[in-house]
Design goal:
mainly alpha, globular, about 70% helix, about 90 residues, Phosphatidylinositol 3-kinase, Chain A
């Protein structure tokens, strides 16, 4: 979690603000997972490729996708710890 916070801290302020907003939105969306079938893991499958992009082509895209998905799941599930001090966007 500390590493995620460290990497995110290097984002330009506009990108950081947008990421915070999107993560809070995705957490809210996940709260309705039993109704929508979009639990955190499914949300990550849809959004990870759009949030995270490799700088270079990865030979094992399956592994890259799995790691990206897990990172987004962690960012949603541990939102309060990763974005500690950020207020819920309105």
């Amino acid at each position: 979690m500390t590493k995620i916070r460290q990497v995110i801290s290097y984002l330009p302020s506009q990108n950081y603000t947008l990421l915070v907003f999107v993560m809070f939105f995705l957490r809210e969306m996940a709260k309705f997972g039993s109704e929508t079938k979009m639990h955190t893991e499914n949300i990550a499958i849809v959004f990870a490729p759009n949030i995270l992009k490799a700088r270079r082509e990865i030979k094992d895209e399956g592994l890259d996708s799995a790691l990206s998905n897990q990172l987004v799941v962690s960012m949603i599930d541990d939102l309060d710890k990763i974005f500690e001090g950020c207020k819920t966007p309105k």
